[in-house]
Structure formats: structure tokens, C-alpha cells
Amino acid sequence: MAYEKGPMFSGARLEDADFSRARLHAPNFEGARITDAWLHDADISGDLEGLRLNGIEVAPLVEAERTRLFPELARLRATDPQGLAEAWSMVEELWRATISRARDLGEAVLHERVDDEWSFVETQRHLVLATDCWLRRMVKGMAQPYHPWGLAGSWLTDPRAWGLDTTANPSLEDILAVRAERMDEVAREIADLTTVELKRVCVPPSAVGHPEHEHTVLECLHVILNEEWEHHRYATRDLALLESV
Description:
Blueprint (H helix, E strand, L loop, with lengths): L51 E2 L2 E2 L1 H11 L3 H4 L4 H23 L16 H20 L32 H20 L3 H4 L2 E2 L12 E2 H28 L1
Antiparallel strand pairs: 1-2, 3-4
Helix pairs in contact: 3-5, 3-7, 4-5, 4-7
């Protein structure tokens, strides 16, 4: 597949543009208006909030169907310490089983990408970064929270500014050791939660990093839980394809 860093269309109007069989990775459509589109057999994934299709706000409908298909999603939305502890235990159990399954494929396969999405090892690296952003930077207020093996999406144009090593290529076992440390940090933080602490507003340090705006402890933990669940879903999807080869 040919890759192009195409022209910037911010604020532009495109007439009769043909995106058939195109792949748009991490596009930003915030505030965009798409009219008279052909979405036959299109596959769209992303963060839906306020999206309307033919005048209907679809995010609540999509979320209701996702919850029907995946009842465990309701647990990820817990708002009390006990519920969050149960949600995190579920996440830990999901990954324990999946990592055991992944090890059966062998090291080399787990560095392979499926449909140019992150490999299994890269997914673990990204989840380290997600924990560093939302737990270490936000909840714990660390000015330098990032492990150099953390991996961000293409939106991070200068990863070295965060102290990330763009040449890193850790083995599965090496990155899993870091992941275990980060997951233990989350578990300890959740174990010490109180209802008052959940409402605390986290102010990000002035050092470069993400997020850049205030969030409550509960909001930060919800992001971590969602990242873990979504990337586990992607990882198991891709493992099934790798196992079938």
C-alpha cells in the first residue's frame, strides 16, 4: 500500500473527492461536516462523541450495542473504589490469558504487524506509555514519568522531547517486565483509593507531555481502563489472524 503525507485539508471544502479503498489512519474530523457521503461497506473505528449520521446522534446507539455485545464494558465505567478494583482485576486476568496465548506463537511473530497495526510487542509498549501519561504524569504528578520504551501514535511528532527512544526494539519478555511494573502501580493506586480521592483534580506538571489539561483521578483511571480493554481487543483480534497463518 502506498503511503502519502497528503495535503492539509483543515478548513477546506472537498468536492467529489474519491476515498474509495483508501485508509485514513488517525485522522482528525473534529467539527468536520461530511455531506452526501457514500459509506457503503466502510469500516470506521474511533472516539465517537456528538457524531450524527443522517441527523441521528450515533454514539449512544453504538455504545449500547457494544455493551450488549461486551457486558464487561459496564464494569470499566465504575465510579467507586470497589468497582474500579474489580474492573482492574478483570483487565489483569484478560491480559494474563492473552499473554500466555501469545507466548505460544514465539518471539518473532509477536513483532509482526497485522494490517499495519501495532504488533503485540508494540501494543505492550503503547500501554506502558498510556499508564505513564494518565497515572504517573497526572494522578501521581511526576514531571518525568516516561519509560523510554513507551510508544505513541503518529500524533506525537517529537517523541525524543518526552525522553522516548525511537530506536528501541525491546524483546517481548523485556517489555512485559516493564508492563508488570506499571500494572502493579495501577493496582496499588486503585487499592488506596477513597471516594474523596476520586474527585481530586489532577493538574499536569509543566514539563512537556500529555495530557496538558486538568482531569479528575476518576477520569484518568477511566482512560487507563479503556486503553487496556480496547488494545486487548485489538491484540486478540490480531493474534487470531497470526495463529491462522
